[in-house]
Amino acid sequence: METNSKKAFACHHCGAEADMTLKGFESVAEVIQREKKLLCKTCGKEISWTKREDTEAIKMTMEAEKDAYQAYSKAAKMTKNPKGRDMFQQLSEFEMNHYHKLKELLKSLQEKGEWILYSGTSFKKKSIPIKIEKPKGQEQLTDMDALKIAIREEKKAQVFYRSMAELTKDPRGRDMYKRLANEEALHEKLLNDQYYSLHNTGIWSWGD
Q1: CB 79 within 8 A of CB 138
Q2: What DSSP designation does 10 have?
Q3: Contacts of 94 (CB under 8 A, 6+ apart)
Q4: Which residues of 112-140 are buried (b: 16+ CB within 10 A; e: fewer)?
Q5: Closest Cα to residue 180, out of 200, 146, 156?
Q6: What is the pLDDT of residue 119?
Q7: What is the DSSP string of 24-64?
Q8: Mean pLDDT across the stretch 4-15?
Q9: Residues whose CB falls within 8 Å of the CB of residue 78, separated by 6 or more in sequence, listed in order
Q10: For 22-69, what is each residue's pLDDT tens digit?
Q11: Which terminus in the chain has less CB density within 10 A, N or C?
Q12: Which residues pair with 8 in a beta bridge?
């Protein structure tokens, strides 16, 4: 979903702003493309990726996960179809769990300098025993628009987490980011499945 979080890194040589701003989930992939280098606009020196950058990136990611939670919650309220509502609600809970795990990680890094283990999150997928009518007209278009936006944002989230897995030196940190990336990939597949189901049949397939 749409994210608005924004964070700029500061140069530890001169204190000026780094030549890159992280915005939502569109972020660290740029660092990878620059061979993991951030250059200061003012002094031109390289800003290395350290624990401080890890901490700042986690703070930014927490805000992006919170934005995703709010966006999915809003979609759940707007969607009239019970299956769509349940799916968006579970996605919102999924993203909030990501937020809480990142918050736990941030606390651990700040207080102990340690990364935490992340075992992953699962859906509580269930069959909804209700006779569902096909959405009509504008209602279907609205649902499909919401799905398209969500698919786009989940793609960004995957790129972000996979990039962070490359940047992070700690094995537990890399494992956590890889798991988060895989979960966002699962979300993307789920959303794609629902989009094509709505597009081709006019029916939500969630819970079947």
Answers
A1: no
A2: E
A3: 121, 123, 183, 187
A4: eeebbebeebeeeeeeeeeeeeebeeeeb
A5: 156
A6: 84
A7: TTB-THHHHHTTS-EEBTTT--EE---HHHHHHHHHHHHHH
A8: 54
A9: 142, 146
A10: 444 444 455 444 445 556 666 767 666 778 778 888 888 898 899 999
A11: C
A12: 21
Query: What would the two tokens of residue 73 be?
Result: 């919650």
At 5, the pLDDT band (50, 70, 90 cuts) reads very low
What does pTM read for this prediction? 0.75
pLDDT per residue as tens digits for the range 97-127: 999 999 999 999 999 999 998 988 877 766 4
Angle between helices 137-167 and 82-111 (to 10 degrees): 20
For the domain made up of 49-201, the CATH class stated in words is mainly alpha
Domain ranges of the chain: 49-201
Structure tokens at 16: 């000026």
Q: Which two tokens stand for residue 139?
A: 């209602």
Do 95 and 67 meet the contact criterion of CB atoms below 8 Å apart?
A: no
How far is residue 175 from each of residues 51, 149, 163, 168, measured CA to CA in Å?
Answer: 16, 28, 12, 10
